[in-house]
Design a protein that fits this description.
Strand content of chain B: 5-15%
Number of helices of chain A: 8
CATH architecture of the largest domain in chain A: Roll
Strand order of the largest sheet of chain A: 6-7-5-8
Oligomer: heterodimer
Number of strands of chain B: 8
Strand order of the largest sheet of chain B: 2-1-3-8-7-4-5-6
Largest sheet of chain A: 4 strands, antiparallel
Helix content of chain A: 25-40%
Order of helices and strands of chain A: HHEEHHHEEHEHEEHE
Number of domains of chain B: 1
Strand content of chain A: 25-35%
Largest sheet of chain B: 8 strands, parallel
Chain lengths: 216, 386
């Protein structure tokens, strides 16, 4: 999946000479946590987060100096240079940036111009879709040897039962490189026939469908 | 309390039959009905025949294109893969002859139950052929073609303008009904079910609370696999009482899937018959507290057709008509008639022996976790009804 598919193209920006007071208003009114700072060519020259603004804001106990502090320009507090991504980057690359750099948001830049933003929340939404938990399904985990051709082999068991697969994930099995866990979400309320088929093919199933049969 | 009630039944309801191997089997309705007859708690005069829902009635909830596809499928006129878009032709909901007519009778049965209660003829009505809560607007799922509860609630809203509390105790999340009224503040849904972490349909999280005007009118209690009687009843009773007080319904509709039992092959809950005595008892009590007795009960899931479902469903009727569940022995006539056909030994008493539940090592943790689920699900009710 590409960044351009999940980014928000309607970005709220400010210029470096805007004030902290303006940033506070923009963050509050739009319920956002980051504002890219751009010049008149839409080049990203900095970024300001709600925390930067909060850190730069006077304490509520210091009423007299508050107004003056809030008139400081954003260029005095913005972070720069800014890590950006391209619309054709992969979503998982953005996830790595969030993890490695401990960011919660990156601007998307094409031809040096700001075209969108991707936030941690967008990433989590994508993850929910990738795992398929947002659609009607039963969840089955199968432990398989880590070898070529194993995925279509297991998937064919579902195909024979005309069971629609809504998502597939492949996990490492603990620390053993010889095995993988295949996680299927399948559109069926009665996974027992498929579970029996998988067992007959010699696959090991994970909890709670690893019970040997009806509970009686 | 002794009440007037109607029992919806006719042989027309038995046409809803996928195939001999399918876990959803209407024989369960016959077994429950005969058990009641054998126990002398169901009189012929209390039985009313279901009408067949019209296409206009189905269209109160379902898409016309979907209804046409179901009609075509039942006449053998749908191409091989033509049903997949509508969720039919799968192992869960295979195509069968006259499936439209058969499904229309189940919906009609629930509408018949609604009319019996709302015309004032009786206080309560029971349609064990209904409760097909996974049916979507234009897609069949989880053994359900037309969603009788969703159609009936739309019908009540349009024809009678009443506030409806829908309570779903099936072990699977009542997703079709929940999503149908997710934006509607006049329909409150409560579903208690095994967590969707592994179990179909996977939804029914606490944080599904409704949207727009309907926010705060969807409640979910996703309980842990291996939950036992006490914990199930603790969260069910607390939630149902508090939500009824908060919502102040005009009518209660309950879906009575009987698949939370430890014998059920499709779920991982570990209840006994004890919950199927308390579930209708509380619905009965609250319908009299808030709705002048207006209560409609439906069937639903339940896949141990011989040992669990007939007793569980018969107790709904026992409670409806006498205010009490049955105790003691199962009538000998019923046992001798059906034991030959049953692949398992039929239970000889209405109650279960507690020892049928396997020892659950993490019972304490599961109970504690379910209680946290309850607290979280009810987080907003107290603030709202002040």
């Amino acid at each position: 999946m590409l960044v351009e598919e999940i980014m928000n193209p309607d970005v709220i920006t400010l210029t470096p000479d805007a004030t902290i007071a303006e940033a506070l208003t923009v963050l509050h009114e739009n319920r956002i946590r980051h504002i890219p700072i751009v010049d008149d060519q839409l080049h990203v020259i900095g970024i300001v987060s709600d925390r930067d603004v909060r850190d730069a804001s006077p304490s509520i106990l210091q009423k007299d100096s508050a107004e003056k502090v809030l008139q400081n320009e954003l260029k005095s507090i913005m972070s720069h240079p800014v890590v950006t991504v391209h619309p054709l980057d992969f979503v998982e690359e953005v996830a790595s940036i969030f993890y490695d750099e401990e960011f919660a948001c990156v601007p998307v830049v094409r031809d040096y111009k700001l075209v969108g933003m991707v936030t941690e929340k967008d990433m989590l939404y994508t993850l929910i879709h990738l795992t398929g938990t947002n659609v009607q399904s039963s969840h089955i985990e199968v432990k398989v040897p880590h070898k070529p051709g194993i995925l279509p082999e297991v998937a064919s068991v579902f195909g024979k039962r005309k069971t629609n697969i809504t998502s597939v994930l492949v996990y490492p099995f603990k620390n053993d490189p010889n095995y993988k866990i295949l996680v299927f979400r399948i559109q069926t309320m009665n996974p027992m026939p498929v579970i029996n088929d998988l067992r007959e093919c010699g696959y090991e199933l994970m909890w709670p469908n690893n019970m040997t049969g009806p509970k009686s | 309390m002794k009440c007037d009630a109607s029992f919806v039944f006719s042989d027309a309801m038995l046409g809803y039959h996928f195939n001999a191997d399918h876990p959803f089997n209407q024989k369960r309705v016959v077994l429950a009905k005969e058990l009641l007859a054998a126990a002398n708690t169901l009189d012929e005069s209390q039985i009313i025949a279901p009408k067949k829902a019209t296409e206009d009635e189905l269209a109160l909830f379902h898409d016309r294109a979907y209804i046409q596809a179901i009609k075509k499928a039942g006449e053998g006129l749908l191409q091989d893969d033509g049903g997949l878009e509508y969720g039919i032709g799968t192992e869960d909901t295979p195509i069968f002859q006259n499936m439209h007519d058969a499904s229309s009778y189940l919906v009609g049965g629930t509408l018949t139950a609604v009319d019996a209660v709302l015309s004032g003829k009786v206080s309560h009505a029971l349609n064990l052929g209904g409760g097909l809560h996974h049916g979507f607007k234009r897609r069949a799922a989880g053994f359900c073609i037309y969603n009788d509860a969703a159609v009936a609630i739309k019908y009540i809203r349009e024809k009678y303008n009443l506030k409806v509390l829908y309570v779903d105790t099936d072990a699977h999340h009542g997703d079709g009904v929940q999503w149908a009224f997710y934006e509607d503040p006049n329909v409150c849904t409560l579903s208690i079910h095994e967590t969707g972490r592994y179990l179909f349909p996977g939804t029914g999280n606490i944080n599904e609370r409704g949207i727009k005007d309907g926010h705060g009118y969807a409640f979910n209690l996703p309980i842990d696999a291996f939950t036992e009687d006490d914990s199930f009843l603790q969260v069910y009773e607390a939630a149902f009482k508090e939500i009824a007080e908060y919502f102040q319904p005009d009518i209660i509709i309950t879906q009575n899937g009987a698949d939370a039992h430890c014998y059920d092959p499709l779920t991982h809950l570990c209840a006994t018959m004890a919950i199927y005595e308390k579930i209708p008892a509380l619905a009965h009590e609250l319908s009299h507290t808030y709705c002048n007795g207006k209560w409609i009960a439906l069937g639903g899931g339940g896949y141990d057709s011989w040992r669990v479902v007939p007793r569980a469903w018969a107790q709904i009727w026992n409670v409806m008509t006498t205010g009490k569940h049955k105790l003691g022995d199962i009538p000998e006539d019923w046992l001798s008639k059906w034991q030959m056909e049953s692949p398992v030994s039929l239970p000889a008493t209405w109650q279960d022996d507690k020892n049928i539940v396997p020892t659950i090592p993490r019972k304490k943790d599961i109970t504690e976790k379910n209680y946290k689920v309850l607290q979280s699900a009810l987080k907003y009710t107290k603030h709202r009804h002040t």
